Amino acid sequence: MSTRSLRDRHGRVATDLRVSLTDRCNLRCTYCMPEAGLPWLPKPTLLTDDEVVRLVGIAVSDLGVREVRFTGGEPLLRPGLPDIIAAVAALDPRPEISLTSNAIGLDKLAATLEEAGLDRINVSLDTLRPERFTELAKRDRLGATLAGIEAAAATGLAPVKINTVLMRGVNDDEAPALLRFALAHGYQLRFIEQMPLDAGGTWRREEMITAAEILESLKAEFDLTPDPAHRGSAPAETWLVDGGPAKVGVIGSVTRPFCGDCDRTRLTADGQVRNCLFARGETDLRGLARSGAGDDEIAARWQEAMWGKLPGHGIDDPSFLQPARPMSAIGG
Questions:
Q1: Residues 263-282: pLDDT tens digits?
Q2: In this structure, is residue 1 part of a structural domain?
Q3: Going along the chain, which residue ranges are E strands?
Q4: What global pTM score does this model have?
Q5: How many domains would you assign to the chain?
Q6: What is the CATH number of the domain that holds 222?
């Protein structure tokens, strides 16, 4: 096993790789993508299945990555997804493999993905009301999402984690109902503060539902006590619900940043390393790979990219600029 790692100058080591497989999505959630969609990445610029597997293999075998999460856009739209997962599951050492999805179509794919080697799944779900789902996502697909979540749980892709973004005046009255739903089905619910990664650049901090507000709304119906388990580098702060063992998480990316413990590195669908979700710069591994570079050269470039990681995302800094890529083109 290689002794190299993805260390930055602040002492953090990236062991969690997020891989965007496509910038395309079959929903148009308002905090992510405009209703008309976006100019998609040209197909020749996208990493091929073999290129994805090669770069993930370098991260795992040469650079100490232990967890790989596939994201999008919507990763279920990637035709080669099962084969990519199977190839990554065959790596030595084998990483933990997860997927972030809207679960549309997962009812037909869950068993195939689990058999290929997928360990667990995170599903984005912002409302349980069909008409509100349509308003938020511009598509009438709540039934398809719920069917996908149920299939994942039935297949054994556990624990199924639900990710929810609350928006002021839109769905901020639904936190208790979503937690009741998660508890009833054995899902793990995590609320995420809305981040400045929308394509329209309309995010305003003063309009964001904060972690404190989320907890206040939940405490109106539930007894929440801090989780005594060590958080480590996990982005979510967790609380025991009504004494446990059930838990609920809150990811306060903006008001309770966890940058000091960040262990992530990101690879976009067109082969660019991003050392932070909010990075303004990228490092091109696709061009390097296609020019004939060997694994050692690619690994060294990846290390250089991570070494320059800033100490934090800087959202509270007056000079903060939103990344040029929206969330749909970066991956969660």
A1: 999 999 999 999 998 888 89
A2: no
A3: 6-7, 13-14, 16-20, 67-71, 96-101, 120-124, 161-165, 188-192, 224-226, 237-241, 247-251, 264-267, 272-274, 283-284
A4: 0.92
A5: 1
A6: 3.20.20.70
